[in-house]
Amino acid sequence: MKIYTKSGDKGQTSVIGARVSKDDDRVEAYGTIDELNSFVGQAISIITNEEKYEDLKEELETIQQELFDCGSDLAFVKLEEGNYKVSGDMAERLEQWIDLHQAENPQIERFIIPGGCALSSALHVCRTVSRRAERRVVTLGSHTEINPSVRLYMNRLSDYFFVIARTANVRAEVPDVEYLRSKKVFRSK
């Protein structure tokens, strides 16, 4: 099988059910999700202490599969609801993971700047790319019917990356990098 097909040489690509411009909102959305998936793979490759980060590695590997599901759901020009791969329970599971890992983190008082250990820094990259992917999904959904669970999942995913970036620092015994000019903006409940 040849990798290059030459079918996109004029700026068009195939999605499921049509041919569209390579800068179509649909292609931008699932392409940014694909980019995020690459960064998640990079974050996984940074994990050298399997024992310390085993749960995070397993969760990230699950997320990689689910990001493919998100892209798949967005690649269909017309998709029957019963054929969606992404469901609301996937976002609910992210919420459970967020709550679990947040309990491990110290109370946050100031804005956090990406940094700390290498894994935390990589997870902050995942967080920011996740936010961009979510924006691309929102743009697509503003004029095209999409699986709403993809938008929900992407919104929760950036929160998940923020929390586990902090957890990675906790486990590496490296403090979060606080924004120095920030007042204490988060309060204990």
From TrEMBL:
Record pathway: Cofactor biosynthesis; adenosylcobalamin biosynthesis; adenosylcobalamin from cob(II)yrinate a,c-diamide: step 2/7
Enumerate the Pfam families for this protein: Cob_adeno_trans
Q: Which residues form the Cobalamin adenosyltransferase-like domain?
A: 3-168
Q: Which SUPFAM superfamilies match?
A: Cobalamin adenosyltransferase-like (SSF89028)
Reactions the enzyme catalyzes: 2 cob(II)alamin + reduced [electron-transfer flavoprotein] + 2 ATP = 2 adenosylcob(III)alamin + 2 triphosphate + oxidized [electron-transfer flavoprotein] + 3 H(+); 2 cob(II)yrinate a,c diamide + reduced [electron-transfer flavoprotein] + 2 ATP = 2 adenosylcob(III)yrinate a,c-diamide + 2 triphosphate + oxidized [electron-transfer flavoprotein] + 3 H(+)
Q: Does the keyword Transferase apply?
A: yes
Q: Does the keyword Nucleotide-binding apply?
A: yes
Enzyme Commission number(s) from the entry: 2.5.1.17
| Catalytic class of the enzyme | transferase
Q: Which GO terms describe its molecular function?
A: corrinoid adenosyltransferase activity
Q: Which UniProt keywords apply?
A: ATP-binding, Cobalamin biosynthesis, Nucleotide-binding, Transferase
Looking up InterPro entries in the UniProt record yields: CblAdoTrfase-like (IPR016030), CblAdoTrfase-like_sf (IPR036451), PduO-typ (IPR029499)
Q: Which domain of life is it from?
A: Bacteria
The record's comment on protein family reads: Belongs to the Cob(I)alamin adenosyltransferase family.
What protein does this entry describe? Corrinoid adenosyltransferase
